[in-house]
Q: What sequence folds into this?
C-alpha cells in the first residue's frame, strides 16, 4: 500500500501525489484489488473516470476493507448518505448520518490547525482524506445545491441545520486535505450559490468562512454582479454580518497579484494596461462599482469603522456568536487567546484587590469586555481595508465625498486613544503561531490599516483638511495671514461641520505618537507615509509651517542622524517626508541648519543620503529645486540661508550635482523600472531641466561623457539614458497618465518636461543639447527594443 498522503500545507504537493498515482495505477476493471483501491480512487478523482465514489462498492466489501485499513467507517457512512439523499428524500436520515460524520472530521481538523497532530503510521489515512477520496466532497456539494432544483415547479428545501453540518464538514476537509479548496473554487456555480446561504443567520458564519477560503485560491476573481440579489442580500445584513462580509469583499475588490516581480515593472504594467483597455474594466473594478451601487453601503461601513466598543453587540448575542466561532477552527484560536487574556486580567485584578482588601471581580464578568475590544478590532480591520481599497479605485471622488459626509475622519479621531492607538496591556493578544511583535497581530494590523487609510485619504485631495479641527484650521489661516500669502483655497472651502472635534485633530494625534515611536518600530514607515501624503500636491507654506511648529523636522533628523536608522523602508519614507517638508521653505532650511550644526552630523546625514539614492533621491530633488528658487529671489532672509546652510552649499556644487546625476542614471534601466525607482529618472531630469534654464545643458552632457570615459566604458551611461527617455515619452505621454503630479512636485510645467526630453532625444548629432552628440559612433546603441533582456 502507498504511503499516507501529505496533509495540506506540507511539502508534498498534489502534483507529486498525482504523478505517484499514475505510476502505480495499473488500470481497473471488475472488482478492485484491495492493495490499490485508494490509488484507483485518486486517479478517478483526477480524471473523472473509473472509481470516484463509495457508491461504486458494496457495503460488504467496504466493511471488510475497513477492518484492515481503519477508515473509521467513513466509506460506509457515505454509502448510506448517498442512498438517503435522493431527490424525494425528507433528509431526516441524511442529517443523522452527517451528525455521525462531522465529529470524525472536526477533531482531526482541530488537531491539524493547532499543530497537535501526531505522527501517523504509513498505513493510516486521515479521515478527511478518506472522506474526500470516496466522493464525500462532491456529494455534499450536490446536497447543498438541491434547493436550486425544481420538481413540478417547486424548489427543494433543506434545513439550515443540515446546511451548517455540510458546510462544517466541507471546511474541515479543506483545512486538512490538499487540493479540495481548489477543486471547490473551480465550481463557479457552487461558489455563486454559497452567497445565497448567507441570507440565513444560522448558516452565515460557516458560509462566509468557507467562501473566504475558496476565493483565496480561486484563479479568476468572482464577479459580484453575478450573485443573485446582491443589493438585497447586503442590505439585509446586520452590522455584525456586514463586518464579517468585509473579509470576503477584501478578496473580491483588490486587483489580483500574480506574485511575479516582473509584473511590477512599469514595462509590464503598461503592457497590462493596454491589454485592459481592450478588455474593459477588471473584475475588481466591476465589483467595486457593484458595491457602491448598493444604497447605504458606504454609510454603514463608516458607522462600523467609527462605532465605540460600548455601542457594539450586546453581551448575550456577542457570546452566542463567539460560541459559534468556537466551532469554526480559525476563530477558535482567537477565542482561546482571548480567554487567556481575560484570565490574566482576572488574576492581576484579584491580586490587586487582595492587597487593597477589596472584593475582586470574577473572570466571568471580566471576560466580555476583553473579548469585545478584540472583537471590535478584528471587525474594524476588515472594514478599514475595504474603505481603503475603494478610496484608491476608479470611483475615488465619489467615495471621498461619501466618507466625508458620513464623518469617518472625526469618528476615527474619537477612537484614536481608546482603541486604535490604545496602550497595550502586559497580556496583549498574540494569535496562535505568532509573537507579540508580529505584524499579523490584530492590534498591529489595525494600526497599519488605519495609517494606510489616512495615506489614501490625504493623498492629492483637498479633503485632507478634515484631519484637522476648527482651531487647527484657524491656525493655518493665521500662518498664511502672517506670511502675507493667500489662504489655500481648499482650506477656505472645507466644510467645518465635517472636521475633527476635540482638542486635537487626527493629524496632530498622529504626530504625537510618531515622535514617541521606538526606533525599531515597524510603524515608523507607515506613519511617515501618512504624514507625507498630507503634504503631497501643490506645495503649501502654511501646511509645512503647521508641521514644523510641532517639531516634525527635528524628529525626522534625529531618526536619520542620531539614531542612525538602518531600515531602508523607514529611511526612504523619512527622506520623502523631509523633502516635502523643506521644499521651497526658507524656515525649514534654517531649522535644518540649526539641528545639523556640526560637520560630523552633516557627514552622517550625507552618508545616509549616499547609501541609497533610490531611497533619498526625492530629497535630493526637493533640495535642488529649492536651491534654484532661492538663487532667483532677492530677500535678506533667503540670502542668509544660502550663505549658512551646509546642505544648500553642498548641492550647489557642480561636481555634487554631476555625481548624483551619474549615479541616478546608472542605477536604473528600462527593464528594471518600477513605481518605486522611476523617481530616480525624474530627479535626473529635474537636474538637467534646471541646467537647461541656465543654458548649461551642453556642459552637463559633456561632463557625463567624461565620467563615462573615466570609467573605461564609453557610451554605457548615455545609451542607457537615451533608452530611459524614450520609455519616459511612452509612459508619461500616454493619454491615461496624469502629469499633474510631476508639475506639482517640481513647479515646472509639464510642457517644459516634454520639451527637455525631446531636446535630449533629438537625433541631430550637431545639436549641442542632444544625447547622440556625446555618444561616439562605435558605441552607439540607442534603438534597442525595450522588451529585450
A:
Amino acid at each position: 500500500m502507498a504511503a499516507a498522503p501529505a496533509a495540506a500545507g506540507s511539502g508534498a504537493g498534489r502534483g507529486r501525489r498525482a504523478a505517484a498515482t499514475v505510476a502505480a495505477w495499473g488500470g481497473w476493471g471488475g472488482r478492485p484489488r484491495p492493495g490499490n483501491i485508494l490509488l484507483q480512487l485518486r486517479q478517478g478523482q483526477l480524471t473523472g473516470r473509473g472509481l470516484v465514489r463509495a457508491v461504486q462498492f458494496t457495503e460488504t466489501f467496504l466493511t471488510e476493507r475497513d477492518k484492515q485499513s481503519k477508515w473509521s467507517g467513513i466509506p460506509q457512512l457515505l454509502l448510506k448518505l448517498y442512498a438517503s439523499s435522493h431527490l424525494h428524500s425528507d433528509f431526516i436520515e441524511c442529517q443523522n448520518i452527517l451528525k455521525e460524520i462531522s465529529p470524525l472530521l472536526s477533531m482531526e481538523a482541530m488537531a491539524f490547525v493547532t499543530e497537535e497532530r501526531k505522527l501517523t503510521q504509513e498505513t493510516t489515512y486521515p479521515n478527511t482524506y478518506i472522506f474526500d477520496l470516496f466522493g464525500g466532497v462532491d456529494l455534499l456539494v450536490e446536497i447543498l445545491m438541491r434547493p436550486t432544483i425544481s420538481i413540478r415547479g417547486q424548489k427543494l428545501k433543506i434545513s439550515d441545520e443540515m446546511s451548517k453540518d455540510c458546510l462544517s464538514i466541507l471546511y474541515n476537509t479543506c483545512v486538512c486535505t490538499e487540493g479540495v479548496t481548489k477543486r471547490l473554487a473551480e465550481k463557479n456555480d457552487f461558489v455563486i450559490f454559497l452567497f445565497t446561504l448567507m441570507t440565513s443567520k444560522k448558516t452565515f458564519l460557516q458560509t462566509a468562512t468557507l467562501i473566504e477560503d475558496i476565493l483565496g485560491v480561486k484563479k479568476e476573481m468572482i464577479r459580484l454582479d453575478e450573485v443573485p440579489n446582491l443589493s438585497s442580500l447586503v442590505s439585509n445584513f446586520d452590522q455584525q454580518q456586514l463586518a464579517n462580509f468585509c473579509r470576503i469583499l477584501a478578496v473580491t475588490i483588490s486587483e489580483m497579484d500574480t506574485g511575479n516581480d516582473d509584473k511590477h515593472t512599469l514595462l509590464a504594467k503598461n503592457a497590462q494596461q493596454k491589454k485592459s483597455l481592450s478588455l474593459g474594466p477588471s473584475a475588481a473594478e466591476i465589483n467595486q462599482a457593484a458595491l457602491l451601487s448598493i444604497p447605504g453601503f458606504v454609510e454603514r461601513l463608516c458607522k462600523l469603522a467609527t462605532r465605540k466598543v460600548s455601542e457594539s453587540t450586546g453581551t448575550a448575542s456577542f457570546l452566542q456568536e463567539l460560541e459559534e466561532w468556537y466551532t469554526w477552527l480559525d476563530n477558535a484560536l482567537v477565542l482561546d487567546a482571548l480567554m487567556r487574556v481575560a484570565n490574566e486580567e482576572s488574576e492581576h485584578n484579584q491580586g490587586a484587590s487582595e492587597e487593597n482588601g477589596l472584593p475582586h471581580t470574577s473572570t466571568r464578568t471580566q471576560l466580555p469586555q476583553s473579548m469585545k475590544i478584540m472583537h471590535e478590532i478584528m471587525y474594524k480591520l476588515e472594514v478599514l481595508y475595504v474603505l481603503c481599497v475603494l478610496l484608491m479605485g476608479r470611483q475615488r471622488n465619489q467615495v471621498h465625498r461619501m466618507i466625508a459626509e458620513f464623518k469617518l475622519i472625526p469618528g476615527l479621531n474619537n477612537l484614536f486613544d481608546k482603541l486604535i492607538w490604545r496602550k497595550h496591556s502586559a497580556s496583549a493578544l498574540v494569535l496562535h503561531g505568532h509573537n507579540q511583535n508580529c505584524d499579523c497581530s490584530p492590534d498591529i494590523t489595525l494600526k497599519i490599516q488605519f495609517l494606510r487609510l489616512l495615506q489614501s485619504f490625504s493623498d492629492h485631495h483637498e479633503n485632507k483638511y478634515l484631519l484637522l479641527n476648527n482651531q487647527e484650521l484657524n491656525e493655518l489661516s493665521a500662518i498664511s495671514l502672517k506670511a502675507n500669502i493667500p489662504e489655500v483655497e481648499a482650506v477656505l472651502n472645507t466644510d467645518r461641520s465635517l472636521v475633527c472635534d476635540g482638542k486635537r485633530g487626527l493629524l496632530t494625534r498622529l504626530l504625537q505618537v510618531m515622535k514617541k515611536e521606538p526606533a525599531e518600530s515597524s510603524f515608523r514607515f507607515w506613519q511617515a507615509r501618512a504624514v507625507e501624503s498630507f503634504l503631497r500636491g501643490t506645495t503649501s507654506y502654511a501646511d509645512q509651517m503647521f508641521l514644523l511648529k510641532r517639531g516634525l523636522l527635528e524628529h525626522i533628523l534625529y531618526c536619520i542622524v542620531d539614531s542612525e536608522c538602518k531600515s531602508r523602508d523607514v529611511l526612504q519614507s523619512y527622506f520623502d517626508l523631509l523633502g516635502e517638508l523643506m521644499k521651497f521653505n526658507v524656515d525649514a532650511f534654517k531649522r535644518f541648519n540649526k539641528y545639523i550644526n556640526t560637520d560630523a552630523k552633516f557627514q552622517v546625514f550625507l552618508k545616509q543620503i549616499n547609501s541609497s539614492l533610490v531611497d533619498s533621491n526625492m530629497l535630493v530633488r526637493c533640495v535642488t529645486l529649492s536651491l534654484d528658487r532661492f538663487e532667483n529671489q532677492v530677500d535678506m532672509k533667503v540670502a542668509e540661508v544660502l550663505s549658512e546652510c551646509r546642505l544648500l552649499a553642498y548641492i550647489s556644487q557642480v561636481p555634487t550635482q554631476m555625481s548624483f546625476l551619474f549615479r541616478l542614471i546608472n542605477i536604473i534601466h528600462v527593464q528594471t523600472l518600477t513605481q518605486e525607482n522611476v523617481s530616480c529618472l525624474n530627479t535626473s531630469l529635474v537636474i538637467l531641466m534646471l541646467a537647461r534654464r541656465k543654458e548649461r545643458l551642453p556642459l552637463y552632457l559633456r561632463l557625463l561623457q567624461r565620467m563615462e570615459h573615466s570609467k573605461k566604458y564609453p557610451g554605457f551611461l548615455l545609451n542607457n539614458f537615451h533608452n530611459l527617455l524614450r520609455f519616459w515619452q511612452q509612459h508619461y505621454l500616454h493619454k491615461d497618465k496624469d502629469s499633474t503630479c510631476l508639475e506639482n512636485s517640481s513647479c515646472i510645467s509639464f510642457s517644459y518636461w516634454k520639451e527637455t526630453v525631446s531636446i535630449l532625444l533629438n537625433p541631430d548629432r550637431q545639436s549641442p543639447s542632444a544625447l547622440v552628440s556625446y555618444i561616439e559612433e562605435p558605441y552607439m546603441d540607442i534603438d534597442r527594443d525595450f522588451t529585450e533582456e
User: Anything to note?
Assistant: The radius of gyration is 32 Å. The chain has 40 helices and two strands. The longest strand covers residues 150-151.
